[in-house]
Amino acid sequence: MRSFRCVSCSHELESDALDPTCDACGSPVIVTGAKVRSLESSSFDALPPGVWRFKALITSLGASEPVTLGEGGTPLLSAVRLGGELGLSKLFVKDESRNPTGSFIDRGCTVLVSLAKERGVEECRCSTTGNLGASLAAYCAKAGIRSEITVKPTVDRGKLYQMIAFGARIETRQRRAADSEGSGRAISVNAGNPFILEGEKTTCFEVVQDLKWASPDVILVPVGTGGHLSMFSRGLEQLRSAGLCDGTGCRLVGVQFGGSAGRGSPRRRDASSDEPDLATELAESEPILWEEARRAVRASGGDWIEATASDTIAATSLLARTEGIFAEPAAASVVASLRLAKSERVVDADETVVCVITGAGLKDTKAISRIARAARQVVAPEDYLVARMQVGDTKVLILKSLAGKPRFGYELWKLLSERKELSTASVYQHLGELVDMGLVRETGVTRFKGRERIFYELTKRGADLLRTAVSINRKGRY
Questions:
Q1: How is domain 106-195 classified at the architecture level of CATH?
Q2: What single string gives the DSSP state of each residue in 19-52?
Q3: Which terminal CB of the chain, N or C, has fewer other CB atoms within 10 Å?
Q4: pLDDT tens for residues 275-284?
Q5: Domain spanning 36-61+72-99+196-374: CATH 3.40.50.1100
Q6: Where are the chain's structural domains?
Q7: What is the pTM of this model?
Q8: Which residues, other chains included, contact 256 with Cβ-Cβ below 8 Å and sequence gap of 6+?
């Protein structure tokens, strides 16, 4: 049995469940009860980097064998160029995109799934906007536990592809209660799971350790559910109790996304001209740990800032160009908030400031499209560049040969064989692939010398691709 406290009504309870909630109000709970003994910093410095270095400070763990993919141990990088752009002399970036599935949530899933495997759990289920599902699916795969993920229709393809690759069963609706009956060895997981939160607080431990066991002046954390931010407060409290750092002067700043579900009163930019269709993990997350996050910010003397969609996309690009870190918008929101934070004196120019980058940019394909369209160095339309990478020189020759009139495969082979050595089978293979890509279509069938011939012609998409290729080649820019 473990002790827990409700994050909403502060009710205290004991439970041996891996997915406990408050039995008074149904809200998420956090682990309590374990006293932190005095510890020496050298005992951690001597251990291998990663989440499990801090096992002595993760109060939910017993003697379980870790289910690990090498999570944690992410770098705290001095952001000199970014700091120069923003007028901050001691700016650092904690790059959580280096985790196994590209998200800080890996820190929590290693803890929860380790406990689940020890208990003989056979299936983990969750409903997610993306990163939690990808991480849970990966760790369940490592542990040999089934995973079932319920996703929203807006889930980003990058995260969805991760879940599929890790073997998760994907649902687009919540399971009915009747569907779950008789599943005694299954647990339901959300981002407020107390054991996931216990793992997430190791981000804080690593920041302090990398600063030679000193806490920074300010830590900025994206606020989706509020859990990660809350765990920074809890982590600093544990480090103080263990005598590892003072931590009393560290202010926590929560960064919310414009239009998100949070109930705070953040400092705002004018969002009237913002882009409403940019959906991100931060905007769609439910702030189920909002009360705990609010207490953490207030206790630290910190503040709240809201980042707009357009500022966040610009910050994603700025972070990548100045520091070589490509973050998803939910993560880059902390960078987007820095100018306002500085102008409003939430942070000062000479303070030690840490921005926590929670996830990798390739997980959010919507953001990639926005950045690609805005990038000045791209000399061709994004759709053309993507298609051209998939279409080799032989396929381009086929498209050119079809410009103006339909042709059948043998006729194409005769035309192309004058320019390069090709077999008829190769030509038909290329044609089939072009049809699958929507660049060519079958337009009719005729008989020639007693044999059936299929005619092919360009589709509009194929013609547009060919036209763009010709235009760019004439300018000598591609």
A1: 3-Layer(aba) Sandwich (3.40)
A2: S---TTT---EEEE-PPPPP--HHHHHTSPSSGG
A3: N
A4: 444 545 665 5
A5: yes
A6: 1-33, 36-61+72-99+196-374, 106-195, 382-475
A7: 0.78
A8: 223, 262, 264, 266, 282, 304, 305, 306, 307, 333
